[in-house]
Write a structure and sequence with these properties.
Blueprint: H1 3-9, E1 13-14, H2 32-40, E2 47-54, E3 56-57, E4 69-70, H3 75-95, E5 100-108, H4 116-129, E6 131-142, H5 149-157, E7 162-168, H6 172-177, H7 184-196, E8 201-208, H8 215-227, E9 232-237, H9 259-275, E10 279-281, E11 285-287, H10 292-299, E12 303-305, E13 308-310, E14 317-320, E15 325-328, E16 331-335, H11 339-347, E17 353-358, H12 361-376, E18 378-380, H13 381-387, H14 392-397, H15 400-407, E19 411-414, E20 417-420, H16 428-433, E21 447-448
Parallel strand pairs: 2-5, 2-14, 3-4, 5-6, 6-7, 7-8, 8-9
Antiparallel strand pairs: 1-21, 9-11, 10-11, 12-13, 15-16, 16-17, 18-20, 19-20
Helix pairs in contact: 3-4, 3-11, 4-5, 8-9
């Protein structure tokens, strides 16, 4: 660990690079007409991944950075689920065929807030609009506090084979400070129930840098999680952006650990998970050695998209629901964020796209470089630049940030091949940012590098 580098680079706000360019650079120049054209132009032999956003929760977690809202009644959820089914039909009719699908991800919010019958109807609509491969990964994000036995059965019947459970921290002091009180027993019961239903892929989500959090409480949370032996962990640093997410104002900044304390927590969690037999995947994921994600990392095929690290090799991601983002060969599209506006547009038979971004050749080059840095902690520029008709020397010379990282000992450069030093891997986002031509205009919207 390099505290000197954490002090130097840690306060800077940088993207997580789940896309390039990142969402702050989307504009209204890309609308429903453009999206329709892009859908029609998808190659016939292409496969797709689907992301369905469910923007509802029963209560608000104050750390949350997602597009979601609190609902007490079930009627708005049913109306929204109907809109999702309509959007699935609208998009598939633009494609003009039942496109092959190999990954489906339900995100939120809390997707399992839906009534079981609504979820089953939605699965049926997906299978009617698209050809879902028998080997497809179907994943859902879950709040164990509200998961019912009936919903577990619906997930199993619907073909879900991966579940991501929000844990964050088992420290009761931290839980009260973030308005998410969740017992170990609730988490264990959900895990056992999901596995009994045949959902064998189980992920846990943890967060460090939360109010009142300490290294000791992080290690206690890891110890208890490891008892349940999930296949994967996602370990994220809390992104405090109260100007962007107003509910985060309920968290007093004086309660938050500084960059060095966050770094200590991150390293403590990583070391504890590795000691428990998990392999570190990129910046913030951990997986058992025989998990598909660990295999993908060893084989150099790991990818990164809006859900983080993934084994998904598709170049087409279709987003459904309010605020959902899609990625096609031509660029990115995003749906309207307010739930009511999204539902009204879909009910009117129109695509809900309100903004996006058309990729340039330079964007595609930089996106590939950034993805490899984020996935592999290094990149060989020669083959990537050759594919894009660019000279690697030009890419290296154009970045003053990269020169600083090399002189600071964060990056080692051998010809056109660069690698992030092992003791500096926590700064991989800073290295990726050296190739970001759009960074300066969006820093205030991102989380701290450490």
């Amino acid at each position: 660990m390099r505290p000197d580098l954490a002090a130097c680079y840690g306060q800077e706000r940088l993207p997580r690079y789940t896309s390039y360019p990142t969402a702050p650079h989307f504009s209204a120049a890309i609308g429903p007409e453009t999206y329709a054209e892009w859908l029609k132009a998808i190659p016939r032999d292409a496969s797709a991944s689907l992301y369905l956003h469910v923007p509802f929760c029963r209560s608000m977690c104050w750390y949350c950075g997602c597009h979601t809202s609190v609902v007490r009644r079930d009627e708005p959820i049913a109306v929204y689920a109907a809109a999702l089914r309509c959007e699935l039909d609208l998009v598939s009719r633009q494609i003009e065929r039942r496109m092959q699908v190999d990954h489906i991800h339900f995100g939120g919010g809390t997707p399992t807030i839906m009534a079981p019958e609504l979820f089953m109807d939605l699965i049926g609509s997906i299978r009617q609009a698209f050809f879902v491969l028998s080997s497809a990964e179907i994943a859902v994000e879950i709040d164990p506090r509200t998961l019912t036995g009936a919903m577990i059965d619906a997930l199993g019947f619907g073909g879900v084979n991966r579940a991501s459970l929000g844990v964050q921290s088992f420290d009761p002091v931290v839980q009260r400070a973030i308005n998410r009180v969740q017992s170990f027993e609730e988490t264990a019961n959900a895990t056992v129930g999901l596995r009994r239903a045949g959902i064998t892929g189980v992920n846990f989500d943890l967060i460090y840098g939360l109010p009142h959090q300490t290294v000791a409480s992080c290690l206690d949370t890891v110890r208890r999680c490891v008892e349940l032996r999930p296949d994967r962990f996602s370990v994220f640093g809390y992104a405090h952006v109260p100007s962007f997410k107003k509910h985060q104002r309920k968290i007093d900044e004086a309660w938050l650990p500084d960059s060095l304390a966050r770094l200590d927590q991150s390293y403590a969690i990583a070391n504890a998970l590795k000691e428990a037999g998990y392999q570190q995947i990129g910046l913030d994921h951990f997986a058992l050695p025989d998990d598909a994600m660990a295999v993908a990392q060893r084989e150099g095929t790991l990818r990164r998209n809006f859900q983080g690290y993934t084994t998904d090799a598709s170049n087409v991601l279709l987003g459904f629901g309010a605020s959902a983002i899609g990625h096609l060969p031509q660029g990115y599209v995003q749906n309207d964020v307010p739930t009511r506006a999204y539902c009204e547009t879909i009910a009117g038979g129109r695509l809900a796209t309100v903004k996006g971004y058309a990729l340039t050749d330079d964007d595609r080059l930089r996106a590939e470089i950034i993805e490899r840095i984020m996935c592999d902690f290094g990149v060989d520029l020669d083959p990537i630049c050759a594919r894009h008709g660019q000279a690697p020397e030009q890419m290296l010379k154009s970045s003053s940030r990269l020169k600083d990282l090399i002189s600071s000992g964060v990056v080692e450069l051998d010809g056109a091949s660069l690698a992030v030093r092992d003791d500096s891997r926590f700064l991989v986002r800073s290295v990726a940012a050296a190739f970001d031509a759009h960074l300066d205009g969006s820093k205030q919207l991102h989380s701290r590098a450490v």
